[in-house]
Amino acid sequence: MTSVILVVSAYIAAQMLADITSLKIVAFVGLSMDAGTLIYPITFTLRDMVHKVVGKKGARVIIVTAAAINLAMAGLFWIVSRLPYDVEAGPQPDWDAVLSPVWRIVLASIAAEVLAELTDTEVYHLWVTRVTRRYQWARVLFSNAISVPLDSLLFCWLAFGGVLPTDVVWSIFWANMLLKGAVTLLGLPLIYLVKSPETD
């Protein structure tokens, strides 16, 4: 039960942090990258861990729940950014500049997360039920190899296509792919930290 609480909490927290930090474009190894990519890649392995401990249906529920929480968070930030400042406290323009949501990025992020993570769920389930329950690292690698490019492509073009120059959008895509691929490889051993209801 403790492992379920930990992986679900970590998954939702990482999703929220990624959505907040995606609003800033940073330079990464000579490429443009949304800063959410610094935390977001670990969500794919965390999702695989969630799948392992609660199953396919539970993973789907948690993916949709995380999306709803992120949408509610963006809505709350939007409401707060529209509220008037307390005159006695003085102006606080930095809050609005940083946390007032850019709806196109927020919605692109949530759409890409949901589609990619649900795809990850299906691919992970396919591996476990049709290929083998052995080699747990392989199920994570296989599911991430499909869902990571899908997520990066969807997010980059939905969020920035037609807004930023095409070469910048592709630069963001490749930076996403590089970092997400590296995090996937480094995170492979994490799947062994949790136990499934059946013995793996």
Structure characterization notes:
This protein is mostly helical and 200 residues long. The protein has one domain. Helix content is 72%, strand content 4%. It has helices spanning 2-21, 42-82, 93-99, 103-131, 136-160, 166-187, and strands at 25-28, 31-34. Helix 1 (2-21) crosses helix 2 (42-82) and helix 5 (136-160) runs antiparallel to helix 6 (166-187). The two termini are 17 Å apart.
Give a concise summary:
This protein has 200 residues and is mostly helical. It is 72% helix and 4% strand.
**Residue-averaged pLDDT, rounded?**
89
Number of helices: 6
Q: Unreliable stretches, pLDDT < 50, 5 or more residues?
A: none
Taking Cα atoms only, what radius of gyration do you get, to the nearest Å?
Answer: 18 Å
Please estimate the helix content: over 70%
Number of domains: 1
Distance between the first and last residues' Cα: 17 Å
Largest sheet: 2 strands, antiparallel
Element order, helices and strands? HEEHHHHH
What structural category arises from helix and sheet content? mainly alpha
Number of strands: 2
Oligomer: single chain
Apparent shape: globular
As laid out across the biggest beta sheet, the strand order is 1-2
Q: Tell me what portion of residues adopts beta-strand conformation.
A: under 5%
Blueprint (SSEs and pairs):
Elements: H1 2-21, E1 25-28, E2 31-34, H2 42-82, H3 93-99, H4 103-131, H5 136-160, H6 166-187
Antiparallel strand pairs: 1-2
Helix pairs in contact: 1-2, 2-4, 4-5, 5-6
